[in-house]
Specification:
The structure is a homodimer of 249-residue chains. With 249 residues, chain A is of the alpha+beta class. Chain A is built from nine helices and ten strands. Chain A has a four-stranded antiparallel β-sheet with strand order 2-6-4-5. A three-stranded antiparallel β-sheet of chain A has the order 1-7-3. A three-stranded antiparallel β-sheet of chain A has the order 8-10-9. The structure holds a DNA duplex (30 and 30 nucleotides).
DNA sequence: CGAACTTTTGACCCCATTCAAAGTAGGTGG
DNA sequence: CCACCTACTTTGAATGGGGTCAAAAGTTCG
């Protein structure tokens, strides 16, 4: 495996460990998994809607989106994943429920079989526990996002999204919450926010004129995090859960 | 324990078993759990937003809603639970992430400690596996709902909701998909659908004049399931996963 | 039988969509 | 290096779905 692949797998292991302590052996067991490398250009579907796959996907490079598709062809992106995320770990628990996924930028993934993951979960209870906890955090993020989609205006959704994405990029070691690359087209952003591309554009423009953020190409510079977080009603708790979980344990 | 309490716990055990086979002993272990009885009238919060609880809640009677609350006080209901549902099982994996919950009607709950559930999950891998699968199904339902909130019109959301709720009532043995009681106020319905009470009313009125459904008080009678499902882009797959999971295994 | 919720309806407004077109890269081949 | 193509961003004008405000008509229950 290349450095990048090992490194993203290590990130995943580290995240699991923070959620639920793993022994050195548990960790070795994870790192010893055999996976296939998958490359995908932007807008390529990695898992088609309605498909049952026997794989889980770890993001090595790029941005990928989980989505639902409607009969009119429209898509709603329900989760965004970046380096170090295992995008569809819950498929280990219920293979019939693997979500549809799409590469949003040129991406590299490491693909593992649900079979292998289930096997190591069976043999190592600490890993099983950590996997479940990881899925639970993912579910909480989606739930929070559902709330945003239901009740909030375009700028509130955008603000929340920028806060969340910035923090996650920071956690993944790709810039910080005030300065990161959000390499999506405005159409893709619209599919995540439940807005039309046109309105995404207008919303961003408003943010710029209010001096909330500056964008050069797709690099975002946040000028006033407090104001952005207030606007988006952003509560960092649900993202920094790793720490809370440890305290509670 | 009363008949009702035992019966709802059995429903929960049965559901787990369909997701991931349990032995008789696993089942006994579940049925042997000690829980507190909780009663709550409509609109009472069972778990306050932002609270960390050490409990999981099984619905014995009534309808309860999981929700997120915003700083302006508005709420978005992210999941609805009825008899036999364990509403916040994922709290076993991550106690810090127990969602806020509210009784939507007068309800009876059976409350278990996450500690006890975690203990039996640790001692019985089959149960741990089943718990994870149960949480995964819950997450898939929430994800589907997020998609609806993001991209669909009021009538599409309503149609989808009625289809889903009807099927779940049928599965729980409370009427069937064409004929069930949806005992929520239109305000509560609005909080689930991301709509104002006024617009919920108008949407229901439209359904009535189109002869999609009839409502007497809060009893719903669906006249044309096919049309309702088509309107809501309802895909039953994600709810009848129990069967699919068994085929895949 | 009155007080407090609900459901229903009407009138008006606004946020976001739709439709349309111009401007701006980025990339490819001649 | 320019011409051209395709994809993305930006802006304008008109439309509409759902929100807001307000009030009346049912219900439920003490």
């Amino acid at each position: 495996m290349s450095f990048r692949q090992v490194s993203s797998l290590e990130q995943f292991a580290e995240r699991l460990h923070r959620l639920s302590p793993l022994s050195g052996e548990d960790r070795d067991c994870l790192m010893g998994m055999g996976g296939d490398i998958i490359q995908a250009r932007a807008n390529i579907d990695i898992v088609l809607p309605g498909t049952v796959t026997d794989y889980c996907h770890l993001i090595v490079e790029g941005v990928i989106g989980r989505f639902a598709q409607f009969s009119d062809g429209k898509r709603q992106i329900t989760a965004i994943h970046i380096v170090g995320d295992m995008a569809d770990l819950r498929a280990v628990a219920t293979p019939a429920l693997s979500p549809a996924m799409q590469a949003l930028t040129t991406s590299t993934l490491l693909r593992f079989t649900t079979h292998e993951l289930r096997a190591i979960a069976r043999s190592r209870p600490a890993l099983a526990q950590a996997f479940w906890a990881y899925s639970a955090v993912d579910a909480a993020v989606v739930e929070r996002w559902a709330a945003n989609l239901g009740r909030r205006t375009a700028s509130q959704r955008m603000a929340h999204f920028l806060c969340e994405f910035g923090l996650r990029m920071e956690n993944a070691g790709r810039g910080d919450r005030l300065n990161f690359t959000l390499d999506l087209t405005q159409t893709q952003l619209g599919e995540a926010l439940g807005l039309t591309p046109v309105h995404v554009n207008r919303t961003l423009k408003a943010f710029r004129t209010q001096h909330l953020v500056t964008t050069t190409k797709r690099d975002f510079l946040v000028h006033d995090w407090e104001r952005l977080a207030a606007l988006g009603d952003f509560d960092r708790t649900y993202l920094t859960i790793d720490e809370m979980v440890r305290e509670a344990a």
